[in-house]
Specification:
Blueprint: H1 3-42, E1 49-50, E2 62-71, E3 78-81, E4 85-89, E5 93-101, E6 108-117, E7 125-129, E8 136-138, E9 143-152, E10 167-177, H2 181-196
Length: about 200
């Protein structure tokens, strides 16, 4: 192979790799909304029930709810549950908090996806209020407590697999997302002024 052919092959390879980067970046930002849609359509990941109001029916049986937190690659925040577990009565209303902290000196944004395990419990785990799939923007050094209110539907006792469950795990994963356009424009002058000093 001549050096001219070799140089041409190297240029083609470089161009192909350069084209892959924006495609992969675009796919990473589309992952959270796609996951939300996929879970709702297929029930994958223990898709939970959703209710507009708290439960009004409670039965005399406790179940342990475990809380888990993780971060996708590139997410700079500290993220953890306030409590790692709680016991609630089936049908009783629960309220848990997750803490997020932005250690950077610039505003950053993130969106959380969730998973319920075992997946058979997903339809009986009902969220009344949740921070998942809503973009969160944290200022430099900002720490927030994000609530999730929920209950376990008493109809779980009618399910042969559900009635023997002793615990359910609710996991959240935070993914880094771009700042909203309007927000980025609002903070740009202040950032420029600080960096100019």
């Amino acid at each position: 192979m001549s050096s001219r052919q070799s140089l041409k092959k190297q240029k083609q390879t470089a161009l192909a790799l350069a084209a892959v980067v924006p495609v992969m970046l675009g796919l990473s930002f589309a992952a959270v909304p796609f996951y939300d849609w996929f879970c709702r359509v297929t029930g994958f990941g223990g898709t939970t029930g959703v209710a507009a109001e708290a439960s009004t029916t409670e039965i005399d049986r406790e179940i342990t709810i475990r809380f888990d937190a993780s971060k996708a690659a590139g997410m700079p925040w500290d993220f953890r549950p306030e409590l790692t577990e709680m016991k609630i009565k089936i049908g009783g209303n629960g309220l848990a908090f997750y803490e997020a902290y932005n250690p950077l000196d610039v505003p950053t944004a993130g969106t959380a996806s969730y998973n319920v395990a075992p997946s058979t419990a997903g339809g009986y785990f009902v969220k009344v209020h949740c921070f998942c799939f809503d973009q969160q923007v944290l200022q430099p050094g900002e720490r927030v407590m994000m609530p999730v209110s929920f209950y376990v539907d008493p109809s779980i006792m009618d399910d042969p697999e559900g009635r023997v469950l002793k615990e359910i795990t609710l996991s959240y994963t935070f993914h880094s997302t771009p700042l909203p356009e309007g927000f980025a424009a609002e903070v740009a002058p202040a950032t420029t002024a600080v960096s100019a000093n």
